[in-house]
Amino acid sequence: MIRGIRGATTVQINDGEEIVERAYEMMMDLIDKNKVEAKNVVSVLFSATADLNAAFPAKSLRKIEGWTYVPVMCMQEIKVPDALPKCVRVMVTAETEVHQDQIEHIYHYDARKLRPDLRKPKGELS
């Protein structure tokens, strides 16, 4: 089955190193919690809010061994009034045997506010 796995994180400032590091941290957690293997990934889509332009969050994937050939793309989030600022989101589309209600979507830092209904208390980052 092909599933979508969501993630989101925030940064303190528009800094390239922080954007890539927080995206990397989010991706490593998403990969670990969902047992994702690069060979089973269809594509990865990152988005960032308009206040983040110092780096492409997709650069985080290039730090992960075995993910060199995974198709990845970055885009800007639409500007919605009162939306969470300084936010990086990801959608990983992958083949998995895990049922949809067992997928662990990853929300770090201030992004935990986005989907409190999916909140899992173990392993949260603050």
Can you characterise this structure?
The chain is of the alpha/beta class. The chain has one domain: 60s Ribosomal Protein L30, Chain: A, CATH 3.30.1330.40. It is 15% helix and 26% strand. The chain has one helix and five strands; from the N terminus they run E-H-E-E-E-E. The protein has one helix at 16-34; strands at residues 2-10, 41-48, 72-76, 87-95, 106-107. A five-stranded mixed β-sheet has the order 3-2-4-1-5, with helices on one face. The longest helix is centred in the first third of the chain and has 19 residues, at 16-34. The protein is globular and about 35 Å long. The relative contact order is 0.31. The model has no long low-confidence stretch (mean pLDDT 91).
Biggest sheet statistics: 5 strands, mixed
Mean pLDDT: 91
- Write down the domain tally: 1
What is the total tally of β strands? Answer: 5
Structural category: alpha/beta
Known CATH architecture: 2-Layer Sandwich
Please give the share of residues in helix.
Answer: 10-25%
Shape: globular
- Summarize the helix and strand pattern as letters: EHEEEE
Q: Write the CATH fold name.
A: 60s Ribosomal Protein L30, Chain: A
CATH level-1 class:
Alpha Beta
What's the oligomerization state?
single chain
Instruction: Say which CATH homologous superfamily is assigned.
Output: RutC-like
What is the CA–CA distance across the termini? 32 Å
Number of helices: 1
Radius of gyration of CA atoms, rounded to a whole number: 14 Å
